[in-house]
Design a protein that fits this description.
The complex is a heterodimer of chains A (about 425) and B (about 150).
Chain A lengths: L6 E8 L3 H13 L5 E4 L12 H5 L15 H4 L2 E4 L4 E5 L4 E4 L4 E9 L3 E3 L12 E2 L4 H14 L3 E5 L3 H12 L3 E6 L11 H13 L3 E4 L3 E7 L2 E7 L4 E3 L2 E4 L3 E3 L15 E2 L11 E3 L4 E2 L14 H15 L12 E6 L2 E7 L10 E8 L4 E8 L2 E8 L5 H9 L23 H9 L6
Parallel strand pairs in A: 1-2, 1-6, 2-3, 6-18, 8-15, 9-10, 9-15, 10-11, 17-19
Antiparallel strand pairs in A: 4-5, 5-6, 7-16, 12-13, 13-14, 20-21, 21-24, 22-23, 23-24
Helix pairs in contact in A: 1-7
Chain B lengths: L2 E4 L9 H9 L6 H8 L8 E6 L2 E6 L7 H5 L5 E3 L6 E3 L9 H5 L6 E3 L4 E3 L12 H4 L6 E4 L6
Antiparallel strand pairs in B: 1-8, 2-3, 4-5, 6-7
The chains are: A alpha/beta (about 425), B alpha+beta (about 150).
The structure holds flavin-adenine dinucleotide and iron/sulfur cluster.
Chain lengths: ~425, ~150
């Protein structure tokens, strides 16, 4: 191993995506002088990961994918090491090791390595034309492949958030797609049957085919390139492009064997601190408290990555704020139907004291469902009409008892005016400090 | 920071705030010209009057100190103005992912179906002494003041 001069910094951050950016912004609010090194295995550009679907769709240009401007690092007095992979964290020596063998010493370390795509072993999948869809590079590679091979049809494995985003992008590029999903419906973890059915219908109207309760058995190819897939059911589909999007898992490679506590993700407390006091983790890699109690969980969504990053950064700079626990939430527009789901939305019937309010107009693709527990809002699904959805999210976060206005919750014009006077006044006449 | 506060007891539901908000965000800022040439028929103002029976009040972005819309915005379009503390929205960057609609507890970000972007987000009438809705409220149901330093 080549011996090179060791760099050190007060704060070392692994990653330069949303959790990392929120963290350094929070650090700089308190500590303008402490040295910061950020290391990323991707490029210097701070891009928005969810926007890769807009990019693949041709809806945004590369320059509009910037989450922060190019001058960000300089402005925040940060030394960036781009296209450098961290391979190991060594807590006993307070160093991280890079792929080239060099070491970086840290005072405090934040790990925001995000998630990595789950790739099930599929026979024949090691050929050209099979992709994941989680990085800008993936989007660029898919885009190039589509052009070079004049792709007309594609198969997407997985109807979760990322699979559907890939579907949206490919539909926009006039590619015929089939989505293959093992569950019996799309977005199975956040959508109920009714919500999925509305979207199923809208998708098929756009020429997208859905194969539910099925999966890919093998990828068929010719001359080293995909020509189709065979499903478990025996069905064969022709396709020149396959996107594997069955999920992401925390990218915990670099902490293995380090003594940092890991379950599914890196386990953190409500200040995003790991079991080692000068090491923090935030975003898709972290396993943190859930809002409704119960076991800690990995919540791989953008708003939470930001919040966790901000809390971690503040804590590292000495300002304690408390993570209130993560709530699953998503806003996805599929086949021109907007949808929002927040909190507990899928029930199995065994829950106590739970009440469900529902209203639908399936003809117009409209559906509204509210889940209450002991009269407090725990979840909402809105399909078709999503205006002012955040009012429900706010009621969930503030654990407001809805007993006195429950019957208004499903109204189309449900608003701040529908809330009890005391709560409403607190909302509109205090200094707003929403969480 | 200075914020707009609402006294619902004084609101008479005249909706002058909506009208003056729309005018303040045109080029000419002249009410007759604005309504004749500049403001589309179905335009939404950045202030929304909620009304039910005798109760009404005008609601606009609260410019939250810990704004959930900024944290949820995945393009960076929603940002805090470093100087004034106001929460502003950059329409150029917005792609209409509706994440802010999902999290704004006041429900004051709205989608424009024509542009598929968030539209008319309150900017506190940047640069003016008093936002147009406050300045034109005939009954002082809207006030613009700094309450943070009292307790
Ligand atoms: C296509 C797509 C669409 C999405 N849409 C939505 C959506 O609509 N709404 C939503 O809430 N969420 C969405 N998400 C999820 C969202 O993007 C993530 O929750 C968010 O990006 C997590 O941020 P993060 O900072 O934790 O990690 P990531 O964004 O995953 O970033 C990880 C960072 O760590 C770096 N890194 C990783 N390993 C190493 C290493 N060994 N050495 C050095 N650097 C390393 C990477 O280069 C990167 O900078 C979507 C994701 C995808 C892929
Ligand atoms: S848009 Fe909503 S969440 Fe954002 S600052 Fe304004 S009131 Fe707060």
């Amino acid at each position: 191993m080549a011996k090179s001069k060791k760099k050190t910094a007060d704060y070392v951050i692994v990653g330069n995506s949303v959790a990392a950016i929120a963290a350094v912004e929070a650090i700089r609010e308190t500590d303008c002088d402490g040295s910061i090194i950020m290391v990323t295995k991707e490029g210097e550009m701070i891009y928005s990961r969810p926007m890769i679907s807009y990019y693949l769709a041709g809806k945004v240009k590369l320059k509009n994918m910037r989450y922060r401007e190019a001058g960000f690092y300089k402005q925040h007095n940060i030394q960036l090491l781009a296209e450098k992979k961290v391979v190991k964290v060594e807590p006993k020596k307070n160093t991280v090791k890079l792929g080239d063998g060099s070491l970086i010493g840290y005072g405090r370390l934040l790990i925001t390595t995000g998630g990595e795509p789950v790739n099930p072993p599929i026979k024949g999948a090691a050929v050209k034309g099979v992709f994941n869809f989680t990085t800008l590079q993936d989007a660029e590679s898919i885009s190039r492949f589509i052009k070079a091979n004049d792709v007309k049809s594609a198969v997407i494995l997985g109807a979760g958030l990322i699979g559907l985003k890939a579907a949206e992008a490919l539909l926009a590029r006039k590619i015929k797609i089939t989505i293959v999903e093992l569950a019996d419906r799309i977005l199975a973890t956040t959508f109920d049957k009714k919500a999925s059915q509305i979207i199923d219908k809208a998708l098929s109207k756009q020429g997208c085919r859905l194969e539910l309760s099925d999966s890919i058995k093998q990828v068929i190819s010719g001359k080293g390139k995909v020509t189709g897939v065979e499903l478990l059911s025996g069905k064969k589909l022709a396709a020149e492009l396959v996107v594997i999007a069955i999920g992401v898992r925390p990218n915990i490679e670099i902490v293995k064997g380090s003594g940092i506590k890991v379950k599914r993700g890196i386990v953190v407390d409500n200040a995003m601190q790991t079991n080692i006091s000068n090491i923090y983790a935030a975003g898709d890699v972290a396993e943190a408290a859930g809002f409704f109690g119960g076991r800690k969980m990995v919540l791989a969504i953008w708003p939470d990555a930001y919040r966790q990053g901000r809390i971690a950064g503040a804590a590292m700079a000495g300002v304690k704020t408390r993570y209130q626990g993560g709530i699953v939430m998503n806003s996805v527009e599929i086949a021109s139907v907007p949808t929002i789901s927040v909190g507990v939305t899928v029930l199995d019937g065994s829950e106590d004291n739970v009440e469900v309010l529902e209203k639908s107009d399936l003809k117009n693709s409209i559906y509204r469902k509210i889940v209450l527990k002991d009269d407090c809002l725990e979840g909402v699904i809105l399909v078709g009409k999503i205006d002012r959805a955040g009012i429900y999210t706010g009621l969930i976060k503030d654990r407001v008892k809805t007993t006195s206005f429950k019957e208004l919750l499903l109204n189309e014009d449900f608003g701040i005016i529908s809330l009890p006077k005391d709560y409403r006044k607190h909302m509109v006449s205090d200094v707003p400090m929403m969480m | 920071m200075k914020r707009i506060y609402i006294s619902e007891e004084y609101c008479i539901g005249c909706r002058l705030c909506e009208i003056h908000c729309l005018v303040a965000h045109t080029k000419s800022k002249k009410i007759l010209k604005a309504f004749k040439d500049e403001i589309p028929k179905d335009a939404t103002a950045a202030v929304l009057v909620e009304e039910e029976g005798h109760l009404s009040f005008a609601l606009q972005c609260r410019h939250c100190s810990d704004a959930p819309c900024i944290e949820a915005c995945m393009t960076g379009a929603m940002y805090r103005d470093k100087k004034t503390g106001a929460v502003l929205h950059d329409e150029d960057k917005c792609v209409g992912c509706w994440m802010c609609i999902m999290v704004c507890p006041f429900g004051v970000t709205a989608a424009d179906p024509a542009t598929h972007k968030i539209t008319s987000k309150c900017d506190l009438c940047a640069g003016q002494d008093s936002p147009a809705c406050v300045a034109n409220c005939p009954n002082e149901a809207l006030v613009y003041e700094d309450r943070e330093n009292e307790s």
